[in-house]
Amino acid sequence: MYKICFTGYRPFKLPFAMSEKDSCYNLFVQKSRQLIQSQIELGYTYFISGMAQGTDMLFAEIVLELKKTYPHVMLECALPFEGQTSKWSDEIKERYKNILNSCDKVTVICNSYSKSCFLKRNKYMVDSCDKVIAVYDGKKGGTRFTIDYARKKGKQVMVIDPSGLIYSQESINEGEAGGKS
User: How many domains does the chain have?
Assistant: First the structure.
């Protein structure tokens, strides 16, 4: 079973509003769905989401939607700590809860918040996967750290630039992850 983890931006770092009223958002969702479906067809059947607001939750929802067509696909939600949603809006909390109730596995990395809990979650996801799909356009932060960590670990990395919806893929240490590229 080949595994992919997702890393990406929270809504405020994206160049579009996370709303169905935004045509750029709709294009992003469409392209992301196509990308994930293509990865399923290549044999990647296990997906890990860090469940942050923004692209993490969106990709988790796409995987759950695709499970209707591909019932063998699995979704793991890797939570940085218990109570991650305590300061979130009720609407986002409800989406989060729906994802957790529908996923196949929930992994809680830390019992409570600490400065390192997000870093530990990101390392767990990379260490547990064969490939990383990252929504990234060069901004500093957790996504950049996760990509750098994945590269250091020899993982394949697919980068989606949300500003232009440009997809790029790096094949690192070909032959690993079943030779998928």
Answer: 1
Task: Express the helix, strand and coil content of the chain in percent, nearest 5 each.
Answer: 40, 25, 35
The predicted-structure confidence for 83-140, as pLDDT tens digits, reads as follows 999 999 999 999 999 999 999 999 999 999 999 999 999 999 999 999 999 999 988 8
Residue 143 has phi, psi (to 5 degrees) of -65, -45
> How many whole angstroms separate alpha carbon 110 and alpha carbon 108?
6
pLDDT of residue 165: 64
| pTM (two decimals) | 0.90
Q: How far apart are CA 50 and CA 127, in angstroms?
A: 13
CATH number of residue 26's parent domain? 3.40.50.450
- Domain enclosing residue 19, as ranges: 2-179
Q: Are 103 and 77 in contact (CB under 8 A)?
A: yes
Spatial distance between the Cα atoms of 5 and 14, rounded to a whole number of angstroms: 19
